[in-house]
Amino acid sequence: MQKLVIIDYGMGNLRSVEKKLLNFLPNIQISSDPGQIKEADKLVLPGVGHFGKAVNNIKNLGLWEIINEVVLLKKKPVLGICLGMQLMAKYSLEGNAKGFGWFDADVVRLKVEDNLKYKIPHMGWNNVVAVKPSILFEEIPSNSEFYFVHTFHVKSNTQQDILSLTDYESFFVSAFEKDNIFGVQFHPEKSHIMGEKLLSNFLKL
After folding, report:
1. ∠ CA(68), CA(5), CA(134), 5° rounding?
2. In this structure, are residues 101 and 89 in contact, taking their beta carbons and an 8 Å threshold?
3. Counting C-beta atoms within 10 Å of the first and last residue's C-beta, which end of the chain has fewer, N or C?
4. How far apart are CA 16 and CA 40, in angstroms?
5. If DSSP states are collapsed to H, E and C, what string results for the chain?
6. Positions marked catalytic
7. What pLDDT sits at residue 71?
């Protein structure tokens, strides 16, 4: 039976992610233990909060190199959620910090012209438009709604890595995929049926 580890670096709604995943897989651990992370078959990197603080937490726990080893060398599937997705980019203006650099992308602040219609942070339900096929979105219709809470977003420099876009006055990257690495800006654990389906799809990898 596969073992999934939700990485605990002190910034994330871990229990709600765990609760949703337990619907499909009994062998789930929430852990900041390097040994457990190294032995995982799949990783989930959640996160809510400040990019720079997240980087510091991960490094202070001695997890930075271990996560890179599991993802880049062992090629284990990893799903980044919200801040977890942003940490996969090269750099963020939030804290002026370097991320893992798994994607050629930067993290920038959302900008809107119509401050009455579009509020920052972007909070609530919005449509996710798939731009290429992926097992992550299998049996999920394009333009399905997912739940968002964020002030920053990923700006990808590589078109082929973009999995979906979302319109919030202008389009931003709401999911990306590269080999064994997946990231979603929205919260599947808060997105009811479509979110559960996405998590179930990730477990099929």
Report:
1. 75
2. yes
3. N
4. 20
5. CCCEEEECCCCCCHHHHHHHHCCCCCCEEEECCHHHHHCCCEEEECCCCCHHHHHHHHHHCCCHHHHHHHHHHCCCCEEEECHHHHCCCCEECCCCEECCCCCCEEEEECCCCCCCCCCCCEEEEEEEEECCCCHHHCCCCCCEEEEEEECEEEEECCHHHEEEEEEECEEEEEEEEECCEEEECCEHHHCHHHHHHHHHHHHCC
6. 82, 187, 189
7. 98
Query: Tell me: the pLDDT tens digits for 67-104?
Result: 999 999 999 999 999 999 999 999 999 999 999 999 99
Is this prediction's pTM over 0.90? Answer: yes
Radius of gyration over every alpha carbon of the chain, rounded to an integer in angstroms:
16
Q: Which residue ranges of the chain lie beneath pLDDT 50?
A: none
Closest alpha carbon to 154 in 203, 70, 205, 81: 81
Count CA atoms within 13 Å of residue 114 on its CB side.
Answer: 6
User: What token pair was written down for 148?
Assistant: 């968002």
* Residues counted in the chain: 205
What are the distances in angstroms from CA 65 to CA 17, 43, 73, 128? 24, 14, 11, 32
Domains of the chain: 4-203 (3.40.50.880)
Would you give the distance in Å from CA 81 to the centre of its chain? 2
Contacts for 135 with CB less than 8 Å, ≥ 6 apart: 201, 204, 205
Quick one: pLDDT at residue 161? 97
| Whole-number Å distance between alpha carbons of 44 and 87 | 12
